[in-house]
Amino acid sequence: MYLCSEYNKTVDMKRLTLLILAMVFVGLAKAEDGHQLWLRYQPVNTAKVTGPECVAAQELRTYSTKDVELRIDPAMEEEAYKIERKCGEGPCVITAKNEIGLLYGAYDLLRQKNRFNNKDRRTNNSLDNKDIRTKEDLRHSNILTDNKDIRTKDIDNKDRRTGEEDGITVSRPYYRLRILNHWDNLNGTIERGYAGLSIFWKGKDSGKRFRDQPIFVEDPDQPIDAELIKEYARANASIGINGTVLNNVNASPKMLSDVYINKVKQYADILRPYGIKVYLSVNFASPMSIPAKGFNGGKPVKTADPLNAQVKAWWKAKAKEIYALIPDFGGFLVKANSEGQPGPFDYNRTHADGANTLADAVKPYGGIIMWRSFVYGAKHKGEDRVKQAVSEFAELDGKFRDNVILQSKNGPLDFQPREPYAPIFDNIHQTKQMAELQITQEYLGQSRHLVYLAPMWREFFGFVAPEKLVGIAGVANIGLDKNWCGHHFSQANWYAFGRLAWDPNLTSEAIAEEWIEQTFGLSEKCKVNSEKCKVNSEKLLSMMLRSREACVDYMMPIGLHHIFAFDEHYGPEPDGFNPRVPLEWCPTYYHKANKDSIGFDRTHTGSNATAQYREPYCSMYDNINTCPERYLLWFHRVPWSYRLKSGKTVFEEMTYRYNRGVGEVKDFLRVWQDAKPLIDDQRWQEVQERLEHQLDNAKLWRKTCLDYFGSFASK
User: Fold this and answer.
1) Annotated catalytic residue: which of 442, 622, 664, 667?
2) pLDDT tens, residue by residue, 33-52
3) Number of neighbouring beta carbons within 10 Å of residue 481
4) Which is the catalytic residue, given 219, 339, 360, 575?
5) What residue ranges define each of the domains in the chain, with the CATH number in brackets?
6) Least C-beta-crowded within 10 Å: which of 29, 202, 295, 685?
7) Among this protein's residues, is 414 annotated catalytic?
């Protein structure tokens, strides 16, 4: 009897334990951590999918509610697809040249299936970041955005790559190269990364500390997380991204060692079924420290001079080694002679000499070289930093191999909240170019501020015609954080990059609406409150479209730039000056405020940076009467008494803009508070905390900058 009683107690305890564990697991299953990104389709497993057995078939069989027929048509363009919606009469039909095109079509079909708003915002002929706020929004915010001189109209519809008629959608990518650049280091850290450690490279704690943070060292023996990389591949394929650079442009030579190349092969094998090629950033001096198979007895060489015969042979041997393992390897990304990186200048050679040596090595395999034009402080040290890219590369135009692409940032400085477009796009005509955008918000609040970047990128495309470029690169914001990007709304910037790289004619509004509906609109709360969800979606859309302009206002209005805190680039430091670092790293260099005036004279009376622009922008920016006021202090030095079109003095306008920016963030908090009943608890709370911090940080920007600049303006 005693034993039986004890047995029953044991059974009861086991049952209780199992019940508790079950409840925990149910809770975890329902917890919403953002890891699913915008891919929130619920498995239904009811669709009959015929045709080639591939990833597209697997996705549709799991998530489609309708039968689908997949067809291969060799006559179609590479990566293009056609969707025929014969739903009701028979299966939907997706046709493409190959399995990757079918996959892009499958994700488009699923994307459209899961939308609840039928408004067509894909393209229009109005300004892209127009004020679309509702009357309710306007009652809480008195902001009127001055958009009249931003050229963000849609690209000529004749050049549209996506069309829909009579239930048939035909889509093809605008750019062949749609590539993420990961600034991931081999020790697992990420330069300008704000969402945890690298998903690719693993490190271990060295036991040492720097600024109270652990110092990591490489640990190449750790296995890769294949399932996570597959999820990464799926997310990228769903928005059309077809390439990834796996490591930092400030590259370690170790990247080209055997142990890491073998890792790259593992990643390439996982990414390949999703249409994604791998690329590597390389250190220009790699031949001096890393052996290449079949060359020089396995020994490095004593120089990295690109015209040295041994160096050329080393690069060819290394390329052969890589392509033997990864036949579809994409090529190399190179940062040379900038910010201390080695390069051809070390041997009195040109950028063309350096790029061409690498280009010749990968050319037999179809590889490319992406050579960054982000250079300063080398050959033209002391020149206005925003001029140095043109100064170094314009004279080399036409001297690069045909598989070399110049990769240039959208602005001439460094991913500021607002810059004029980079004039290198006006000065290179015989060499292929691609634009480098920054998805990670290095200068726009990092992963702590809600700032939607598509309006900034669309602004860029208003000045640099998409047809001038052969591709788009985006500096990734991805890390090991459970939600991938640190801030739930930062996922929208990853999404927007992919969608714009596929079709730069899409509006910021259309992309944001897609993302909102897929990210927040498929929840159980929205299913039972569909009409409220539509209204909420409009408010979130308005908030996102206003967020970049708000960031400019509370950080650096009317052309102020690069007044961030040293090194981390987070928070204000308008008085920043350190004689031990290059002058162009110091905030005071960029505004030169004193008791009389403020601003950087880049006109013909100053650094003459305006001369690097094509007309009409050369004359427009050079003349203070025609220069857009959003660039006023970028191009002009003005007295504090100068009055803007509003009638306000410079400092009065600053005060108005800083107040306006803070007011917008307050309004974002109101919008998010109203959205609470329709958002899952975890994501709502996490975004709420970041918005509260964003408001505090915006207020800090306002106080710091107005106190500092006011100390001059009041004299």
Assistant:
1) 442
2) 999 999 998 899 999 999 99
3) 21
4) 339
5) 49-171 (no CATH), 177-506 (3.20.20.80), 554-713 (3.90.1330.10)
6) 29
7) yes
